[in-house]
Amino acid sequence: MKKLTLSFWFITASVAYVFYSYPNEGPINISVLSPSVIHKKKDSAVAVKQSNSPNLAGPNFKSVPVVTQKSAQTVRPKPTGIYADGTYTGNQADAYYGIVQIRAIILNGRLASVNFLQYPNDRRTSRFINDQAMPLLESEAIRAQNANVDIVSGATATSQAFQESLADALGQAKI
Amino acid sequence: MIIRETRIIMGMPVIIEIAGASAKKESFEELFLYFTSIDQRFSTYKDTSEISRINRHELCESEYSNEMREIFALAERTQKETAGFFDSRKPDGMIDPSGIVKGWAIQNASEMLLRRGHQNFYIDAGGDIQSHGKNSTGIEWAVGIRNPFNQKEVVKIIYPRGAGVATSGTYIRGQHIYNPHKFGEPITDIVSLTVIGPDICEADRFATAAFAMGQKGIFFIENLRGFEGYLIDVKGRATMTSGFRYYTTP
Q1: Helix crossing, B98-115 with B25-42: angle to 10°?
Q2: Which of A78, A101, B187, B230 is least buried, going by the fewest C-beta atoms within 10 A?
């Protein structure tokens, strides 16, 4: 229970700190990206099973009291609150029970969403984020292998020739 | 003595290799005849095929062949088990079971070779593979997963040890696989999904359905007991199921 409370508190404080430090001009919409959105962000390392509610189960982060604890980070927020659009990955933070890492997306100079890249691998905590979270699967960049194989699974030379031929025909068909 | 033969049937190369001295010409002939008969029955590109006649409503159900009934039953079961991501009925109303026929046919052919007493062989029809035993040098058959972006390369080597290996991809003849839940939208975020299953019939039917799920497909395979998968997306990033590494060690 202690571990859960601690990691919950840390996650809450981290996210609250983000919003405290980076005030926005308008309403903030925090959402854990639903799978349909995540598919479009191909470099996201997290996929969660479809959930009806896009928002984090739990408290509204804006109303959580902010603890101004000393942090190793020395980032000073810009006073005007205008940020460059983009995707920013937070550092890997030790939440005692595991690692938490978030990614923030700035759109039109405002924080548009926050999602978890890593979260403690604990069923109780996973439920906090999404009732049916999927496991993180291993991924890698594909690399050509040099060893000999007996058989190859995949596209065939016939299809390659078909495509070349089709491309040639279409090239001739161009006005 | 012929140990490997390749013929173009069903619009794709069908490769059969029987390792060792037991290879017989009759075995190859029986198998190629079988694949030709499957093509003649199930090809939607052939006007005279049974499936084309069924689609033109020229046959009533009592006239369907036993093989056709078997395939329809398998299609219905696959549709239920994949929440409709495999659906043999296409947007234009035509029935096209080709997503499951290939694996099913290879499975039948493999059983023919076993009945003939062959222990060490593989059948490769358009990149879907069923192997048994060992290769000519006495070691496990090694299967390479083709690089979707460069067909001269393989990007992963697996040792199926008798399991079936099926790869679904968009790079074959353009986007011939689409999402039945989103008509008109081709699959664009993933380019290749290799499924390893208990046999090639099982691997093939789930590979077809899982591919239609896009990125989610690998999670579907992860949750399927007895199956492993290797997904490649448009950026060349591969994701594997948690038990996949069992097959990458020789």
Answers
A1: 160
A2: A78
Contact B16, B121 (CB under 8 A): yes
Of A39, A154, A155, the CB nearest to B214: A39
- Using DSSP's 3-state secondary structure scheme, residue B137 falls into coil
Is the CB of residue B189 less than 8 Å from the CB of residue B234?
Answer: yes
Q: A151: which 2 tokens?
A: 């058989």
The residue type at B238: A
DSSP letter string, B184-204:
T-B--SEEEEEEEESSHHHHH
DSSP string, B73-89: HHHHHHHHHTTTSS-SB
What is the C-alpha separation between A143 and A145, in angstroms, rounded? 6
Rounded Cα distance between B120 and B245, Å, is: 24
How far is the C-alpha of B148 from the C-alpha of B172, rounded, in Å? 9
pLDDT digits (tens, 9 = 90+) for B57-112: 999 999 999 999 999 999 999 999 999 989 999 888 999 999 899 999 999 999 99
**β-strand B143-147 against A151-153: which pairing, if any?**
parallel
For residue A38, list chain B residues with Cβ-Cβ distance below 8 A.
Answer: 215
